[in-house]
Amino acid sequence: MTDPTSILPQRSIGSSASTAPQSQGDLRTSGNGALPPRFNDVPEPDNNQEYALKEFYHLVRDMLQGGKGWPILRLALAIVVILIGNTIGQVRLNEWNGAFFDAVERRNSTAFLWQLVVFLGIIAFLLFIVVAQTWLQERLKIRLRERLTHLLLDAWLKPNRAYQLSLVGRSGAQPDQRMQEDCRLFAEFTTELGVGMLQAFTLLVSFIGVLWTLSSYASFEFRGEEIIIPGYMVWIAIGYAAMGSGLTWLVGRPLIRLNTIRYAREADLRFALVRVNESAESISLYAGERDERRSLNLVVDSVLQATRRLSGALARLTWITSGYGWLGIVVPILAAAPGYFAGRLTFGEMMMVVGAFNHVQGALRYFVDNFPKIADWRSALLRVTTFRRAATGLDRTIEENRRIEVSRHPEGWLSLNNLSIALSDGSIIIDDATAEVKAGERVLIIGVSGSGKSTLFRAIAGLWPWGAGQIQTPPPEEMMFLPQRPYLPLGTLRAALSYPAAPDAFDDELVRKALERCGLSDFLGVLDENRRWDQSLSLGQQQRVAFARVILHKPRWVFMDEATSALDDENQESMLSLFDNELAGASVLSIGHRPGLEEFHNRTLHIRKTEEGAILLAKPRPNPRKLALW
Ligand SMILES: Nc1ncnc2c1ncn2[C@@H]1O[C@H](COP(=O)(O)OP(=O)(O)OP(=O)(O)O)[C@@H](O)[C@H]1O
């Protein structure tokens, strides 16, 4: 395939000789050698226990860093105090158990009534403690969620990162789910499991002593001799709990992986639904509902399949958790029975043994009872930390690969020096291009569809770092980029016009003039209405909003990627004439196919495909009609 507009000999990527002269405004090729590696394979994390704990440690450390961790630490401290109060109340309640059942056994009505009064006192204390604990726990969940969400938002909304993350594979995918659901789950589970574990620990420490003391009352007869095993009920409780925990670990381990898979599938489903909703108009125009239904069925099936496998694993685990729960009713009584039948334990003391045994083995079995929740917590943790790691490690990942160096041009112009742009598979679409655009020039880039024009536009904007060579740019505050579909934020039209500045950044008069100049005076009356402007304005109107934005911001450099594609000829001319009037002197670099564009520019640069399939930037052909402007 030869291109009549190019004056350069054709060549393929990898050839080293340059045949083109290097002069200002010239796009030249010389061959750039090795291809950069793939950029979209950020490694997935190891799914082991040690890794999860390390990630948890790093995450908590970062959340508590700086003054922002204090509210969390204060709440955690208050919860510790409350938990100690709770444990004291529980020990007292267990003692009351002994006294109360002894009064029942002795048929002592006075003691019985007095114990009822004592009971009311203990319950009032415990009630206060439990309400306070619930309140503090809920506050802690909110604080943790707030901190974590901000941490992820900070990592995500760094310049260019959100876009680049969307290109780096699964670890950067579904930021919505990670910052909404996963952060919420992580905050809730961390609080519930953390408080539960601490409570289990304080109860264990307190009741193990009670159980040890009461164990000395239990004795066995062996060949006529009385045998007392020190703390034997403690050993039974430990053995019983250890067996339960071991079995649970064996049966419940697959839950962690299955949970992770389920969350990922759920996120895929949500993403697919959102995408259908966003593209509802096009889908309807193509009558593509049946096809969408078919694809959605596949995603729904994969969610259900993951949930089915999870429910099977949960049911298997219930054999253990429930079986253990029921055995737990009788095991402490069996353990205390030798002491009771030997007459060394009263009925009340046996009840105390039952209470203490249940607390001890309940605390030891904490892991068993909460296994599904721990699995959920671990999945949420890994999803949050993987995303954060992908976001914060992105710059390093890009650095490790070859990247395009972007810096300031000493004269405030734009220059591309031996620039190569790579795709995700490592292939190069633009190879070793060199060009310079001076202040005040208007340059058009043309090339066949898919030749890399938009990718070059992204590279100049700093969005596309993958490749090699240098781009020198004007000062960032002097540049404005106009993509084909302008971004209109949620909110008022005024906010959309002044974006990214604050909605009230420009005077009413300026805003009015800009709207009128861009043929949008019909919207003067609804400037402050909140609407989905991205849906209610036509693409041509949205493109004119983008030009009105340019009038307000007055950038010295404007980069356009098919920014007039939806305008009729008259409107296109009207918008481009801004650069002869309101924005006279501004430099323009645009990409486009529309007729009429070439006449507006001083120079045309050409992206050309060679026969070998490589794509090169070739020397421009001066636009004869605009030669006078050179
Ligand atoms: N995010 C991406 N990930 C992988 N490949 C991409 C991505 N964006 C673009 N490409 C590939 O880069 C090549 C150039 O795409 P680009 O959009 O830059 O072309 P273009 O010249 O602007 O096309 P058009 O004129 O049709 O808009 C294409 O082969 C495209 O598939």
Shape: elongated
Specify the CATH architecture of the largest domain.
Up-down Bundle
C-alpha Rg, in Å?
35 Å
Identify the CATH homologous superfamily of the largest domain.
ABC transporter type 1, transmembrane domain
The overall pLDDT, averaged over residues, is 84
What are the segments in which pLDDT stays under 50 over at least 5 consecutive residues? 1-45, 618-630
Number of domains: 2
Percent helix: 55-70%
As laid out across the biggest beta sheet, the strand order is: 8-11-12-6-13-14
Distance between the termini: 30 Å
* CATH topology call of the largest domain: ABC transporter transmembrane region fold
Total helices: the number is: 20
List cofactors, ions and other ligands: adenosine-5'-triphosphate
Largest sheet: 6 strands, mixed
Q: Strand share of the residues?
A: 5-15%
DSSP E strands, number: 14
Structural class: alpha/beta
In the CATH hierarchy, what is the class of the largest domain? Mainly Alpha
Kindly describe this structure.
The chain is of the alpha/beta class. The protein folds into 2 domains: 49-397, ABC transporter type 1, transmembrane domain (ABC transporter transmembrane region fold), CATH 1.20.1560.10; 403-629, Rossmann fold (3-Layer(aba) Sandwich), CATH 3.40.50.300. It is 57% helix and 11% strand. It contains 20 helices and 14 strands. The strands form 4 sheets. A 6-stranded mixed beta sheet has the order 8-11-12-6-13-14, sandwiched between helices. Strands 3-7-4-5 form a 4-stranded mixed beta sheet, covered by helices on one side. Strand 4 and strand 5 (428-437) form a beta hairpin. Helix 1 (49-64) crosses helix 12, helix 3 (109-156) packs antiparallel against helix 5 (175-215) and helix 5 (175-215) runs antiparallel to helix 10 (347-364). Mean pLDDT is 84; it is low at 1-45 and 618-630. Bound molecules: adenosine-5'-triphosphate. Residues 1-32 have a biased composition (Polar residues). This is ABC transporter ATP-binding protein/permease.
